[in-house]
Write a structure and sequence with these properties.
Its cofactor is Zn(2+). This protein is α/β, with parallel strands linked by helices. Helix content is 25%, strand content 28%. β13 and β14 form a beta hairpin. The protein binds zinc ion.
């Protein structure tokens, strides 16, 4: 039977254990009936349903609000680095994907028409401050000088796409901005203020310094790659930067993981969490050069944070309520009759899987998040962790790299 045929029928989820639905979360194992209209019709233990329904047995698995990945790259075909939404979305347990600046004002219309609108998943986007976005990522940088930013066109693009755009993205790293320093971050903040949306800033190779970026950000803004292990950008190599990050987090700046190919360190994350500094949100920064190594998917990234000491319920909150607040997605009554179904069904299983961070450090994950289903309306999509493909050594103009 195809998903389309399934979607016509009501969906009965049996033996699922709700978590992260707020104070009214029912205890123990329940059944949930979702009507053919995609809305919750009934919740209870051992529902007696006589009508013709699609049945999914959760076998005691957890059910939470659908997972949200706050940092992915899915402008597939419009940038050289992006993957398809289907590669990191419902089939991986993620029902909402937030693209972090793959599109700029010059090409956002294509992203909307060819990716956002046809996708099964809910897709939101941070608009890149640079007009061209990540067309030829890091080969044709999007923020070389002021000619790469068009304030009027950004405002126009936002006006036409405000239901899709949730903020402004700035990649503040010398790989992109050369010696331009922190100026693009200041311009991004100005635009974000005018539009009354958050700004997400990528921190990496200085300039700009992580410290300078934090000084510009305000409550509600997001710093992604927060626990990177890069020289000059790690919060664990400079006590002043650590204290600044901790103070900004207290004041409402959101520290986002944004694992990616180069931006998550087990050592930094473990040390920060041990000192009580937890990430606000857990995101993958999945793209074509990070998926097979070292990120794989959302569930593995969540398992990595669990492994370095983040509590289980905090990990789930960091992929549900936390990113939902950034994109203004309402989270009240997500398990109430009449609400639209948007769930992830998952298990936490024992494991001895070896996983690698962006610095090449290896940890054994003793517990693994295993997504089983994504539920979007009356459709249940089978989900699993990504099985990485063998890496290939690729030759290019300035050497070799693993792909
Ligand atoms: Zn990214």
């Amino acid at each position: 039977m195809t998903f389309a045929e399934n979607a016509m029928k009501p969906l009965l989820l049996t033996h699922v254990k709700p978590m992260a639905f707020g104070p009214a979360t029912p205890g123990g194992v329940v059944d949930i009936l979702v009507g053919a209209d995609g809305r919750i019709a009934q919740i209870g233990s051992s529902l007696a349903v006589t009508e013709d329904v699609t049945r999914v047995d959760g076998m005691g698995a957890w059910i939470s609000p659908g997972w949200i990945d706050l940092h992915v790259h899915i402008w597939h075909g419009g940038t050289d680095i992006s993957i398809r939404p289907s590669e990191c979305g419902a089939e991986r347990g993620v029902t909402t994907l937030v693209d972090a600046g793959s599109a700029g004002e010059a090409n956002f219309h294509g992203f909307r028409e060819y990716i956002i609108e046809p996708a099964k998943e809910r897709i939101k986007a941070f608009l890149n401050l640079g007009s061209i976005g990540l067309v030829a990522c890091n080969r044709v940088p999007e923020l070389r000088d002021i000619r790469d930013i068009d304030l009027d066109r950004i405002l126009e693009c936002y006006a036409e796409n405000s239901e899709h755009i949730v903020g402004i993205k700035v990649r503040a790293s010398h790989v992109i901005t050369g010696s331009w320093g922190v100026t693009p971050v200041k311009l991004g903040k100005k635009i974000a203020k005018i539009l009354k949306v958050p700004m997400m800033v990528h921190v990496g190779e200085p300039p700009a310094l992580y410290d300078e970026v934090l000084e510009i950000l305000g409550p509600g803004d997001v710093v992604t790659h927060c626990f990177n292990g890069k020289a000059g950008s790690s919060i664990m190599e400079d006590e002043d930067l650590y204290n600044l990050a901790a103070r900004c987090a207290d004041e409402g700046v959101r520290l986002d993981i944004g694992h990616g190919g180069a931006s998550f360190s087990f050592k930094v994350a473990e040390a920060a969490i041990k000192r009580g500094l937890l990430p606000f949100s857990i995101s993958t920064d999945l793209h074509g050069h990070s998926m097979n190594f070292p990120v794989w998917d959302m569930a593995t990234t969540m398992s990595k944070l669990l492994c370095v000491g983040m509590p289980f319920d905090k990990v789930v909150e960091a992929v549900t309520h936390a990113p939902a607040s950034v994109i203004k997605l309402p989270m009240e009554d997500r398990l109430s009759v009449g609400s639209r179904a948007d769930f992830t069904i998952f298990d936490l299983v024992d494991s001895d899987l070896e996983a690698t961070d962006s610095n090449g450090d290896v940890s054994v994950l003793t517990k693994l998040f295993e997504p089983r289903y994504s539920v979007i309306g009356s459709e249940a999509i089978t989900a699993s962790r990504y099985k990485p493909k063998a890496r290939k050594l690729v030759r290019h103009s300035h050497g070799y790299s693993w792909r």
